[in-house]
């Protein structure tokens, strides 16, 4: 078996993929309608919108397959994203790269595969729309054109999904994107008995920035705050702008003590930004941190309310000290 190679732009590819905010989100009709259409058009048992993550391929939409992901190192889609056009295997048993692949030797017994790369911003390939059959098949020029057209529809939906879950100003997740991804993150923690911590963050003295420097500078401050968040938090952490000057971070696999350490690092990097930027004001924040217990799980809404209450208590205490 030949494992798929790693694209030369892998770091950019993974960063672009994460910016889509699509990984581990629920199934959606807008993607399912394309895979259903492809299944009918090509009369194949399996059609996938497959997103190639760092170590796995994850399925945003799956017709005819119960699995939600498989390892990247045995994936056909990992090979497909290395090329610029449809990756076609008409009979996997006759191809030495795949004949002993676990997906060929066992379930789902792949024989035929056709995967069209899906491109995000800048032409970066993040996955495929792929057709799979358990018997060898022919695939002609008209079939290829039809698959490319359907793949373009998926690309449009990925762009629309990103726009609906991304904050326009800061380019990080918005409230909708956070709520979708955080619920899945907490479900994962429950299944695997892992802790999590939620940090509810509010900027201190943000109104005077708008009043004294103008709203354009206020927007600059919010964008800068989000940029420092991106440089400070772990890749596995989910952070978002809830609205106004309120932000939130979900740290999966972390206790409250772990979260406080990460937030201390964030505070240090924010101080470094303030010293370097010298904008005439300093970005500072108040934060309420609550821990999630997978053995007695709270809802996401309950965690947000508890973090919000804790944050406001800390902010009130700061005001009393002034």
Would you kindly provide a written description of the structure presented here, covering whatever features stand out?
- With 322 residues, the chain is α+β, with helices and mostly antiparallel strands.
- The chain has two domains: 10-165, 2-Layer Sandwich (Beta-Lactamase); 175-321, 2-Layer Sandwich (Alpha-Beta Plaits).
- The protein is 44% helix and 21% strand.
- The protein has ten helices and ten strands.
- The strands form two sheets. Strands 3-2-1-6-5-4 form a six-stranded antiparallel beta sheet.
- A hairpin with a 5-residue loop joins strand 5 (112-119) and strand 6 (125-133).
- Helix 2 packs antiparallel against helix 5 (141-165), helix 7 (207-213) crosses helix 8 (215-232) and helix 8 packs across helix 9.
- The longest helix is centred in the middle third of the chain and has 25 residues, at 141-165.
- The chain is elongated, with a radius of gyration of 23 Å.
- The mean pLDDT is 94.
